[in-house]
Amino acid sequence: MAATPTAKMQLRVLFMAAPVLALTLLSVSAAASSIVGSAADDAATAAAATITTTTSTTIRGRRSLAASSSSQSVSSFSLDRYGARGDGKHDDTQALAKAWSAACASSQPAAVLVPGGKRYLLKLVTLAGPCKSPSVTFTVKGTLVASPNRADWSDADRRHWIVFRGVDGLTVNGGGAIDGSGETWWENSCKTNKALPCKEAPTALSFHYCTGLRVQDLSIVNSQQIHMSVEDCTDVQLTGLSITAPGTSPNTDGIHITRSQDLQVTNCKIKTGDDCLSIESGTHSLHVSQVVCGPGHGISIGSLGDDNSRAEVSGITVDTVQLTGTTNGARIKTYQGGSGYARDITFQNMVMSGVQNPIIIDQDYCDKATPCEAQASAVQVSNVVFKNIRGTTTTKDAIRLDCSKTVPCTGITLQNIDLKMQGGNDAAGSTCQNAKWTKSGTSHPSPCRRKSATA
After folding, report:
1. Which of these, 223, 231, 218, 185, lies nearest to 204 by C-alpha position?
2. C-alpha span between 47 and 336 (Å, rounded)
3. In angstroms, how far is the first alpha carbon of the chain from the final one?
4. Which CATH number fits domain 275-455: 2.160.20.10, 3.40.50.720, 3.40.50.1000, 2.30.30.140?
5. pLDDT digits over 220-278, tens only?
6. Where are the alpha helices (H) located in 39-92, listed in sequence order?
7. Is the N or the C terminus of the chain less surrounded, counting Cβ atoms within 10 Å?
8. Which are the catalytic amino acids?
9. Is domain 72-189+197-272 given the CATH code 2.160.20.10 in the classification?
């Protein structure tokens, strides 16, 4: 049947409109793709953050987290949204500060994102709480890099670079990097050039007065001085960290802990120019496990008691550690003239390869520009266990207990020790002074065979 004139006109209009409709749909689709693309970084942040609502309970003062069945959205705050360039040349400090302020003020769980594939140049910045947000996640996918210009730090505060202060329930993660650009600081250190005056240098990453802190899956490299410092914090877990600087870089401790309690350090690789871990006064209830250390100065409790100060350290366990090419292994170091105590300490299940001083208590420690004078008072070292420690030493004395004459070390236990000279050409030895010790199981070398010792 032939079509009417009206039907022909309707078909013609529909035919002409089809391409326009197709172009319109294509435009809408492209716009949607653009929106999705611009939100990719925010989605990555939300994925990295803990999406589920958590319920906190307290068990022996430590936070226990259990995911609830309901999900709660996370507000995401990318540095790029606040004007960051991410080219490693322009200063992005203010962009980070603005992103942090917005996240901290959020009424929902919040996540700050450092996007991947970029380098964000930063000067000194303090990211402070308390926050309105019930939890803040700081996710580093890219790299935060310190300004290489030492003039960007004033004498008023040369000790810090990135500081988190007074933030509870903070998580820092993301698999990215924090680069301290430390080379120019090392060159101008008095330990590198003794003709230069001794000045402080920044710690790359500092946490002050934080409770319920989690730091995981980060690389921290080439810090100006200490790589990470935990001060006045409670309930802390540091996991899966890689900390790296040349073995010749001065004062570049890996993790520094002081005035903090209830801490765990797990599954970390630390290669620096100073202590892999330095555990100082006010540290209580610390458990360290599965740590690889070296080069560096080993795992140290101290220094304690410097400038005639009082020190208190207790409840320290260092377990399952591998040290390679370090100047010390398991060490306790205190200055003469101090007071207080270092007690209830266990070093166990440690493997050492080419370590200069595998087991050492040094109560005559001095790291001053001028020699330290002899003093009668000292930090009391007691109830220390060295257990299941094996490997090789590069110095004759694999065990050295050098304790105070007026405040001797007491309750020192040496259990299942097997340390040999590297190369096997000579037998390892031991020296002790003013140490009251006991042996359990086997011990090679035999403990305290020279100098005055009390068994």
Report:
1. 223
2. 52
3. 118
4. 2.160.20.10
5. 999 999 999 999 999 999 999 999 999 999 999 999 999 999 999 999 999 999 999 99
6. 40-48
7. N
8. 274, 297
9. yes
